[in-house]
Write a structure and sequence with these properties.
It is found in: Cell membrane. By secondary structure, this protein is an alpha/beta fold. It has helices at about 40-50, 75-80, 95-105, 110-125, 140-155, 170-185, 200-205; strands spanning about 1-10, 20-25, 30-35, 55-60, 65, 80-85, 160-165, 190-195, 205-210, 215-220, 230, 240. β4 (about 55-60) and β5 (about 65) form a beta hairpin. The structure holds adenosine-5'-triphosphate.
Length: about 240
Amino acid sequence: MIRFENVTKVHDPRAKPALDSVSVEIEGGEFVFLVGASGSGKSTFLKMIYREDVATSGSVYVAGHNVSTLTSWRVPKLRRKIGVVFQDFRILPQKNVYQNVAFAMQVIGASRARTKERVTDVLAMVGLEGMEKRMQHELSGGEQQRVAIARAVVNQPDILLADEPTGNLDPTTSEEITEVLKKINANGTTVVMATHDDDIVDRMRRRVIELSRGKVMRDEAKATYTSLIPKVTPATGTTGEAQA
Ligand SMILES: Nc1ncnc2c1ncn2[C@@H]1O[C@H](COP(=O)(O)OP(=O)(O)OP(=O)(O)O)[C@@H](O)[C@H]1O
């Protein structure tokens, strides 16, 4: 579904690359956490997938497209296969809940009947039934994120990218939002979530890709936020402390 082949991204030639020779493959239907310190390259990794950023070298393949060589007029076709949610929700303040989600279907020319049916289903799925008429200022942070998620998945994308979706939310709300993402993944959508939330990662036990200064330093199935695999000390062969 997503393949990075030796991907390097240089924003500023005087600084270290934001991504440095990254090779990773994510299969359809996976749920993957992207972790790493601030500035380690998580957002850049996600931006490569929806082609907000283009690799300086190497190739990125997404849902059958070679994103690195995609001409700009083909980008909308790629983006239809991808939903994206952000830490700061980014819902449209002049539209109500229903209109925020319906808008994503209107722009691809869906009929009014189909839009009504699908938006109603998706709002129920994210737990916003009965809140269709509410405006942004009448919603909690968690509810705003539910709207953003509903909008991101209403056109049934193959992939959902989430860039610190719980970064502005309290722990209970963060867990509820993660449950929504889990449900979307259980329906077959590949989910890639960048996060600093160790509690969520530790509870979910999914694949964890850890970046450090633009490099993949860990790629582990059913993993925790901090690796539990003990480091082998080369000189003595004894085990040391778990990696930070
Ligand atoms: N448009 C840009 N121009 C210049 N440098 C950039 C740009 N975008 C990102 N960078 C740099 O690339 C590196 C990786 O940034 P990125 O935003 O991908 O990190 P991150 O892991 O998502 O961080 P955070 O957890 O703080 O969101 C950082 O050093 C950042 O300063």
